[in-house]
What does this fold into?
Amino acid sequence: MQELTTYLDTHKDRFLNELLELLKMPSVSADSAFSADVARTAQFVHDSLVAAGADNVEICPTPGHPIVYAEKIIDPKLPTILVYGHYDVQPPDPLDLWESGPFEPVIKKTALHPDGAIFARGACDDKGQMYMHVKAFEMMMKNDALPCNVKFMIEGEEEVGSDNLGPFIEANKDKLAADVCLVSDTSIIANDVPSITVGLRGLSYVEVEVTGPNRDLHSGVYGGAVANPVNILAKMIASMQDENNRITIPGFYDDVALVTDAERAEMNKAPFDLEAYKMDLDVKDVRGEKDYTTLERTSIRPTLDVNGIWGGYIGEGAKTVLPSKAFAKISMRLVPNQNDDKITDLFTKHFESIAPESVKVKVTPHHGGLPAVTPTDSVEYKAAAKAMEKAFGKAPLPQRSGGSIPIVSLFETILGVKTVLMGFGLDSDNIHSPNEHYGLFNYYKGIETIPYFYQFYAEMKK
Ligand code: BES
Ligand code: MN
Ligand code: MN
It folds into this structure.
């Protein structure tokens, strides 16, 4: 593999500059004002796969944003890796908290990234990580070192729930047939503590609307006599967690898979510095479900969080008003064996049941998804662990993550393939937040590691 290392060294600057170009495109999938930019980004991904040497590169339209497909079949008898990633990004707001433009990438050093990190929306999630795969593929192609077949499926709707990806996979089962799915859209523990993600949480996402009086009222003339939907909503939300920070929705925990004490002890051996964690977030203390550690609270336990809440007057100055309506967006992170449809249903029934007579409530489900776990005794995990060890000089730790990639469970149910979550970000890279960044070390280390995975996987599958 020496020739790959030399190739990477020689083309380092170009690999970076191409990523910077990709990061300049505001492919915000949630906002239709950016549709043309999303389409341009799909074209960029398409063109880079063509340039890298892929065949049958297509931009597949969907009722939403397009999916980019590409493949290189060198021998049908060899195993096939299906690479999945996403070229869409989260909205960049709040814009005023960015130190540089979200779509004007700049490289700056940070404490955790002394070699520099690229600051831009999507740098880590997931353009930087997705593009490592395109560059790793280019390296293997240009050096005649591709050891197996590969297919790429890069979508543009991951950040809005991948609604059109399920039907696409269902309709293209043969085309997408593979032995394993490889994804870089997660994190490692630290740059000197490599890890492989072996679990993702599921998700149930709902929006609630609470209506009080039929119109906004003068808060002096009516206040005290008519239900204020903002006050009521705040109370309803607060009641959904008890004094131990357990969720009070009846039946919520019924299907939660219990993790054995031995497994819990094992997972808590992972390096984790609570003081540094609090310091990084500037909080005096952490808060979460009683009797669980921070690592457990963010991996093996379900949650309920308000993502946004609004209603009434939020403009400058003061306006005395008793608002007619209040709203909130609420997400619940789920763990094995919870089912998002069932949880959404339990939430809806509970929310309706706790609403006082003085208001009307409406619950609208958004997207959801199932949790996923990967066994560590599988060929794909072993190949990934060997690849990480080779590149980092240190064996990786298996770690469950708190995030969600709902499509992973569909790879298993529709295509019958397991997914390897070999991500290279850091949890502190500010994904979905202002000043998102991705370390140069991480970008290049990913490009170096991916061909090792291909090599070891192809060898182990023989
Ligand atoms: N890449 C993230 C998921 C992730 C991040 C997993 C960090 C593990 C560690 C992905 O793009 C994402 O943001 N997923 C959403 C869910 C989706 C349905 C919008 C999430 O987790 O909020
Ligand atoms: Mn992502
Ligand atoms: Mn994301």
In short: The two ends are 19 Å apart (CA to CA).
